[in-house]
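hey can u check if this looks right to u? its 193 residues, i copy pasted from the old doc so theres a chance i mangled smth
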Amino acid sequence: MAPRKVVILPPQYLPTAEWFAALAGADLAVVDADMRYDKRRKSVHRAYVKGQHGLFAITVPVSHASGIRTWAQATVSDHGHWWTVHCGAIESAYARTPYFEHYWPMLRPLIASQAVSESVTLFDSHIEAVLRRIIGISVPVSAMLPPGTDPDCITDLRRHNFDGETVLDTIFSHGPNAASYLNNLSGLLTKQP
């Protein structure tokens, strides 16, 4: 059976609640790992967490080898032992939330030195898969559109600006109710032109 509602999303590091809401509102999601590499597209390797003075950007450094044409070809760098900074920022921002101790052990091992030299989009997809499992989103995610997909069923959000706070706040604050929060947000997103 062909999906009635397909969403195409850009890859994103620690995606926002809005990104997950778009995914949750679909029958099938396509995350375009082969998006054209553009160093201005920071959300592929940058996320925003709560800081003492508002949102704080944490960025996964990317190795810039010549000839990179897609984000799937870009790799995670070890510059500055970024994983230590990211885990510290996340722990500082969310350690006092009600569900932090329950969910952080599932995510913590992914934000580590083992990610170095891995494709940026593969790294993103490992984290996104765990976040989907935590939230309880069972929408299938694919790397490409199924052949014969009706173009009228597709919402292409690759150029949408998904800047904002990571979904971690939703998960750590709402726990099992995170899915309900995202479903409500999904309903708002589908009403937009």
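The longest strand covers residues 46-51.
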